[in-house]
Structure formats: C-alpha cells, structure tokens
Amino acid sequence: MALEQHAKGVIPVLWHARHLAVEEDGRIVHRDPDGTLRLDEEKWRIIGLCTTEVSAEAQREASKDLPGFRDEPDCFEISSPTLDEDLWTEGFFTEFPDGMQRD
After folding, report:
1. pTM for the full model?
2. pLDDT in tens, 77-91
3. Distance CA 30, CA 23 (A)
4. Are 30 and 40 in contact (CB under 8 A)?
C-alpha cells in the first residue's frame, strides 16, 4: 500500500493543533460536538511525513505523552495531500487586530 500511495504522490502527514482561544469560562474547546477539530485560533505543527497511515497512527500514539502534545492529545490530524498539488489556489486573507493592518 505504501508503494501505491507514493506512486500516486500521496504521503500521510501527521499534524498537531495547539489551541490558543479560551472560552469565557476558561475552557479551551478542542473539538466541536460532532467530533470535528475546532479551527479557531490555533498553531499547527507538522509532526512527521509518514510512509503509510499506519505509521502516522503509530507516531500519533507515540507523541500523545510528550510535553506539549499531552496537553491536547485529541488535537492530532492526519492528512494525505498529493505531492505537487497547489493547495493555495485562491490565496488567503489575514484579519489583523485594530491598528495592526499592514499595507
């Protein structure tokens, strides 16, 4: 399976999201009620580029107890982008705090 994935240019990537936004009651919400990872104010880290989804899952399990990651053990994601695929075809927009807008 790994050779098939690489032949198609697909490599599993293990990510971790560190959430920065805190709710009014002091909680950090990591996942929405349906289980989807909450995407609000987070910092993403690439943990590793893996040969298979199985190796990405093993790396996730190995990372869950490490400092920093153990604070948010449910905030790992595995994506499988295709190599040489443009993932930013529409650009992006940055919303700056008041008074911080750049030209």
Report:
1. 0.63
2. 898 888 888 888 888
3. 11
4. no
